[in-house]
Amino acid sequence: MRGLSPLSAVGEPPVFYYNSLALDSNGNPHISYFDATNTSLKYAYNDGTWHKETVDSDGYVGQFTSIALDSSGHPHISYWDTTNSRLKHAYHDGSSWQVEVVDTTNELGHFTSIAVDSQDEPRISYRDMAVTDLKYAYHDGSGWHVETAASAGDVGAHNSLALGQQRQPPHQLSRFELWRGPAVCVPG
């Protein structure tokens, strides 16, 4: 990666928490993060100069962020809305930010991981804190669909989602089973 100013140029503590990084096709960094001072979701990218934007400031929002870029280089961010205990997805459509609710069941949206498929549709893995399950949500162009990926034991924390070689399912979810040992893969 080419020389960039330090990440501290994006935000000084206690601002910069729950950050996630994606690189575009030119190697430019795109970062989502929680602004603890303003309790909001922020986005920053560097194309030679750092640019910062507020994505969502409706309540206490932006923890557990994950970022991915679609084929046009537009960012998609998954995150937790603490105020309303729900999982949200924000994306830039080329002109402005769009924010949508993905799942409102129980207390969810912790430990999100996002990937964008070959049709530029988002897929998100996350933890349902109320029942300690690993959940998986995907958008099919018309709406969100939610599944339970794993429910045996205390699962879903610190998960990671990856799509196949052509950004298509099958997907792989890794999850850490609390108090049970190493990470395991859940094939999709």
Helix/strand structural class: mainly beta
Distance between the termini: 33 Å
Number of helices: 0
Strand order of the largest sheet: 1-2-3-4
Total domains, how many?
A: 1
**Would you identify the CATH architecture?**
6 Propeller
Sheet-strand content, in percent, reads over 45%
Profile the largest sheet: 4 strands, antiparallel
Poorly predicted sequence stretches spanning 5 or more consecutive residues: 1-6, 175-188
SSE pattern, N- to C-terminal: EEEEEEEEEEEEEEE
Gross morphology: globular
Descriptive report:
With 188 residues, this protein is mostly beta strands. It has one domain (9-187): Neuraminidase (6 Propeller). Helix content is 0%, strand content 56%. It contains no helices and 15 strands. The chain has a four-stranded antiparallel sheet, with no helix packed on it. Strands 5-6-7-8 form a four-stranded antiparallel sheet, with no helix packed on it. 35% of the residues are buried.
